[in-house]
Amino acid sequence: MDDEVQQPEYEVGTGILCVFGRQLKLFRERAGMDRAQLGSLTGYSASTIASFEQGRRVPPPKFIDRADEVLDAGGVLSASKEEVARAQYPAFFRDAARLEAEAVVLHVYATQAVPGLLQTEEYARAVFAMWRPQLEEEVIEQRLAARLARQGIFGRRPAPHLSFVIEEAVLLRPLGGAAVWRGQLEQLLLIEEKRNVEIQVMPLSRQEHAGLAGPFTLMEMKDGRRIAYAEAQGDSRVHTERQRVRELERTYGTLRAQAHTPAESRALIEKLLGER
Length: 276
Description:
The protein is α/β, with parallel strands linked by helices. It has twelve helices and six strands. A six-stranded mixed beta sheet has the order 3-2-1-4-5-6, with helices on both faces. A hairpin with a 5-residue loop joins strand 4 and strand 5 (226-232). The longest helix has 17 residues, at 242-258. The two termini are 28 Å apart.
C-alpha cells in the first residue's frame, strides 16, 4: 500500500478543501483579520493562508487547531481535521489509508518499490518524482507529507503487528541514486529491530512463487474484520468479501514460507550494504 501518488480527485475550488477554505475565510473575516494577521498568529505566510482558503493546499492539523482557536470558531474548523487530512490522498486510496491507520495487524507484499510505510523521506520523494504522468511539485509535497504521516503507525500503542514480504529485485533497484538507496536499506534494518515488525525478502532464486498475480495488503481490525487491499496502475479495490480475503491470506502464508526468514533477510540486506 505504497502508491498514493495519483492526482487528487478534485481540482482547485472543489471538494473538501474548498469547503474548508471557505469556512476559514468566513471565520477570518468575521474576526476582522487579514491573511497576514492570521498568518502571524498561526506561523504561516499570507500567501500560504491564501492557498488554504482557495483549496490549493492541504492545511496541516496543527494549523487547523490553531486557526480554530485564534478565530474563535468553536470547534467548527477542527471538526473537519480528519476529513481534510484524508484529502492528501487520491480518491482511490482514502478508504485504504483510513483502514490502515486503524488496523491491529497489517501484512504487506511489495513488488515494485519499498512499501510506503518503510520508506525514507528521500526515497519517497524519488518515487514521487519518477511518477508518470509527472506530478506537480505541490502535489509531490502533499503526497510526501501524507506518506510520512502514515508512518505514525509505528508509534501507536498498543503496537500493531506488521509484516512485510519484499521482492529481492526491489532491494537491488537503487531508486534515487546510491546514497538514497543505502539510506533506505539502513532504514529497513532499523525498523526490522522493532519487536512488532517482521521483514522478509523473496529471493530471485526461488523456482516457485505464489505472488505472481501482484502486490496486496491484508489488514485485521480491532473488531476482528479482515480486509484486503489490492492495486495495479492506480486501479485499486478494498476487498471485504470473506472468500477473496481468505484466498489472499493463503497466498500470503505461502509467500512467507517461500521467502527468506527474517534473520536471513536481515543478513541479505547487510550483505547488500557491505557490497556497495
